[in-house]
Every structure is written in structure tokens, then in C-alpha cells.
Amino acid sequence: MNLPRFETRALAIGAAVLLALAVPVGVVSVLVADELSSSAWVAVPFALIVAAAALSGAVTARRAISAPTLHAGAAAALAYLVVVVVAVIRWAADSGEVTWTGVFAGAAVIVSAGVIGALWGERKRT
């Protein structure tokens, strides 16, 4: 079985879409975290970031010629890796404590949303 070569343009566009949509939401949610922590509004930034991952997956799938779901999952993972590296450095500097379970659970959610978005994007492509 031959694995497809990654299409770097599709990966870059997909990761850029996710970063462009999710990073501002994440920054705002960190800035207002104290006000949101005791209300149900804390779920809104999470939902927006998951929706951004799904949209990114759809965009990636429409750009990738072969293996669109693989490309969408990889683009979501790449964008998440960029964010996690910055977040881990910030967490380590602030409290010295990194919740690795949360990091891996977040990766699973973001990559899954990217793949689900890719399935939708594939359907729209045909």
C-alpha cells in the first residue's frame, strides 16, 4: 500500500485557517477567564475553536487532491502543535504545571473535528 505524499500547500492553508480563527478566540478567552470561569459561557470559546477546526478540515479537504481526510487531520494536528508549544511554555513559566491529559484530550478533539470537517468538505467537493 502506497501512502500519499503530503500536499504541503493544502496542509499550510488548513493549518493557517485554524490558527487564524482559533488563536484570537483563545486569546480573548484567556483574557476574560476569570469572568467566565463561574458561568456556562466558558463553553462558548471551546465550541468556537472546535467549529474552527471543522471549518479548517473542510478547507483542507477541498484543497487536497489525494487523501483529503488525512490532510485535514494532519493540518489540524499541525496547528494544534503550534498552539500547544506556546501554551506549554506559558504554563511552565506561570505555574510550572502542565496537564498532559488535557493536552492530549485537546489534540483528540481538534483532530477529530478537523476530520469531521473534511468529510463535509469532501462531500461538498463532489
Write the layout of secondary structure elements.
Elements: H1 8-31, H2 33-36, H3 43-63, H4 68-94, H5 100-125
What tags apply to this protein structure?
126 residues, mainly alpha, 81% helix
Describe the structure.
- There is one protein chain.
- By secondary structure, this protein is mainly α.
- It is 81% helix and 0% strand.
- It is built from five helices and no strands.
- It has helices spanning 8-31, 33-36, 43-63, 68-94, 100-125.
- The longest helix has 27 residues, at 68-94.
- The protein is globular.
- The relative contact order is 0.19.
- The model has no long low-confidence stretch (mean pLDDT 89).
As a percent range, the share of helical residues equals over 70%
Principal-axes geometry comes out as globular
Give the number of DSSP strands.
Answer: 0
Largest sheet: none
SSE-based structural type? mainly alpha
Brief description of this entry?
This protein has 126 residues and is mostly helical. It has five helices and no strands.
